[in-house]
Amino acid sequence: MRRIAVIGAGFLGSALTAGAARRGWDATAISRSDPYDTQRADPGMGVLRVLDGDGVKRLPEALDHGVEAVVIAAGGHFPLPSAAAPAADAMGTLSLVIGLCEAVRARKPDTRVVFLSSAGAVYAPGDGLKSESDPGEPTSPYGMSRRVGEEYMAYYARVHGLSTLSLRCANIYGRLLPRSRGQGVVSAAFWSALTGAPFTLHGTGRQRRDFLHIDDFVAAVLDLLDGDPPATVNVGSGEGSSITDVLAAVEVATGSTITTTPGPNARTDTGQLVVDLSLLRKVVDFTPLDLAAGIERMARATAAGGLPDHQ
């Protein structure tokens, strides 16, 4: 049985933990909070546990349990909050990355360490697909901390021989996120459709981004852990969809009309940012849902589960 530890039980961490268990793995989430009730998720044929507390302090317990991979799905702020607290964002992300790598190096150095970075924060919008060899051009403190986190992963591989993997993740969607986060275009569109509140549209709405359903994200990450990937890999759909495409798909899936209100424009609210999946597809067989199918799946899940308490 494969054994994995996931640091953080937020949107991505909770989905990865539950997905690994359902694949038949032994999955442990380590987190100070459990907003998505990971501990009650169906483990399928696997094992699922949640350890409450600090990731660095509790990781040795998981390593002693025979964990083969540690996935860092926590640390720092989100892009908008990070702009108001860049130092706190950097310290939150980098102290976690360094602390976890040091724990692995001291306790079980053959454990793979995976860092969930962000394609949207590391790359800058531009023509063509963004490949892993393209230069990083962060435009927010969040993007800077993710990019430097990748460099620390490379450092621990180069100097200390750790097996590290940085995943540049596209815009992952699939469940309603707290509106207070100020992030998640698809989630924000669903909130507007379900509550009647206007959707704040930044820019023209024609800017194209890469959107990937959470189920495809989980499958890609777990498949990569079963393979031999290079040090940095994009994880996305490889297809661009405009913000107006997202709004239209959510309207169709929910049967609701979404009104918009203009929001402030930023230099990044333009152009295209879509990732190249060539490297990913050299390692795993990957055919993600298209946007309409993914949003329809999210609509069904949302209808079945109702609105969350954490709005």
UniProtKB/TrEMBL annotation:
Keywords: Isomerase, Signal
Organism domain of life: Bacteria
Segment forming the signal sequence: 1-20
Any matching Pfam family: Epimerase
InterPro entries listed in its UniProt record: Epimerase_deHydtase, Lipid_A_modif_metabolic_enz, NAD(P)-bd_dom_sf
EC number of this enzyme: 5.1.3.2
A molecular function GO annotation: UDP-glucose 4-epimerase activity
Domain NAD-dependent epimerase/dehydratase: 5-236
SUPFAM superfamilies xrefs: NAD(P)-binding Rossmann-fold domains
Protein name: UDP-glucose 4-epimerase
Taxonomic classification: Bacteria, Bacillati, Actinomycetota, Actinomycetes, Pseudonocardiales
